Amino acid sequence: MPFADYNSADPDGFDSLGDVAKPDGSQHTTTRLLSEEDAKSADRLIALAELKALTNEPTYGGNVLNYSPAIADLCGNLYFRQSMLQDYRKCPMMFLYRWVIGHEEEDTFFAAVMGTAGHRVIQHMHESRNFAITYVDIMQLFLREFDTACRDSKIPPRLSAKYPTLRAQAQAVCPEYCTMLLGYQRHKDNQTFHATILEQSFVLELKDEFSRTFYFTGTIDQAGYYDDGVFALRDIKFRINDFRPGPTAAKLDLQLTLYGFAVHKGVPSCSECRPKYSDEGELVYAGPCSVCQSLIGTSKWPMLIPQKTVLIWMRDYMPRQKDQYTKYVDDPAGGKEMNPDTGRMRKKQVINDKWIHGYKKGEQAGPGHIVTDRPWAFLQARSADILRLAGMIRDGRFYRNEGEHCEYWCKHREPCLGMLETEVQELDVGRLNEHVATIDPFGE
Ligand code: SF4
Ligand SMILES: [Zn+2]
Question: Up-side HSE of residue 423: CA atoms within 13 Å toward CB?
Fold first, then answer.
């Protein structure tokens, strides 16, 4: 097969971003398994943090807030989803509330639940290798998955004031999603893609330049092979076009970089063998379960560097609402003619040159696929950036980064502002949010 020895560019002995060769020269063995948050263990960790918080008032030191040891402990024990890193970049203080202190969030973004349903429909298409599902069947499938996603979401999705029920809101927005899904299954590049990895959790262990270990976790939407044998990692986005990355941002994309690294150096994980927090609040990992272990080195976890990384931009599959340019323009040569619609004379019309080349009503809005590649050197360099980001979180570097997201995104405005008004900078260490997977609009 043409992809068999693609990985030969991989330098031997690399196992961390400090480029530390393992003494025995082996590869891949430092990767350990972490997984989705374990709610029960998280509760124990929180209880412990609360206990410590009672005896440790947070204080200011210089211009860096020295948080209570409870918070420092929590930061030290965090492992990372890419969405957490994205949140930190948006506003470190929001990150602190959302992911460390676990300040209660009242609802989930509705779009996040719709996205989950959309992902499941696509998973179904690839599992069944059926790319000829009718619009009506897609809709049924979608609504069923929407109901399941709602049930699974521990925090209910946010209901718009316009609709009486979640189901009504879903039904109103559903046609848009089903149109995108219809476009997805019509696209040749999706039909000729053979996903061997679908919605698979992973854990990736990386070391930073100070030999500190960081764990990253996430869910890979798809990896597999095109008909020509190219091994690709693919990620599906239902986001609105405001978020559509340009070519540079797509190439640098943090998530695809991390996931590309994970396919190569990470390991699959499942709910059975996920790491746990001990009673002391330490992260512990007992090794991959036999089922996960058996995937490694197979097509289900081929340990290759993806030759292509593909962002699948679902909004691109929406049909254009109108032509880009008007079809007829006044004839520059002048002259008059009869308007067949009105029977009156008008300036002579000719076909607009621009119209010929512009997009037309009904055409797909975009290519659907934003394709990049990430050679090994690129993955290493870019992952160093990611590690520095994670290192800042571990070091407890939190500050307010105000902006549009305060109003539109952040659900922690009250404590953020409230904390500025109290004399002692008390941080109420509540509970680590065990709902991270379901409240996560970037989790897709
Ligand atoms: S209100 Fe703004 S500055 Fe405060 S935590 Fe939220 S996003 Fe950050
Ligand atoms: Zn497992």
Answer: 0
Question: What is the residue-wise DSSP string for 181-226?
Answer: HHHHHH-HHHHTEEEEEEEEEEEEEEE-TT--EEEEEEEEEEEEEE
Determine the residue type at 141.
L
Sole residue written with tokens 């003494």: 23
Closest listed ligand to the CA of 94: 1
pLDDT at 103 over 70: no
The Cα–Cα gap between 230 and 6 comes to 9
Q: Which has the closest alpha carbon to 9: 400, 379, 299?
A: 379
Find, among 15, 95, 174, 158, the residue nearest to 397 by Cα. 95
Closest CA to 263 of 288, 312, 299: 299
Collapsed DSSP state (helix, strand, coil) of residue 256:
helix
Using alpha carbons, select from 216, 283, 214, 273 the residue that is nearest to residue 74: 283
d(CA 359, CA 391): 46
Q: 3-class DSSP state for residue 332?
A: coil
Nearest CA to ligand 1 atom 2: 406
pLDDT at position 149, please?
A: 92
Task: Check: CB of residue 83 under 8 Å from CB of residue 442.
Answer: yes
Over 80: is that where the pLDDT of 24 sits? no
Closest residue by Cα to atom 4, ligand 1, is: 416
Q: Is 405 in the pocket of ligand 1 (CB under 6 A)?
A: yes
Tell me the domains of the chain and their CATH numbers: 35-107+191-315+366-421 (3.90.320), 111-186 (no CATH), 320-363 (no CATH)
pTM: 0.77
CB 131 within 8 A of CB 191: yes
Query: What is the CA angle 434-75-267, rounded to 5?
Result: 70
User: Of ligand 1's atoms, which has the minimum distance to the CA of residue 402?
Assistant: 3
Pocket test for ligand 1, best of 409, 412, 419, 420 (most atoms within 8 A of CB): 412
What is the C-alpha to C-alpha distance for residues 351 and 327, in angstroms, rounded to an integer? 6
Please name the helix (run of DSSP H) or strand (run of DSSP E) that holds residue 130, with its range, or none. Answer: none
pLDDT tens, position by position, 317-360: 999 999 999 999 999 999 999 988 899 999 999 999 999 999 99
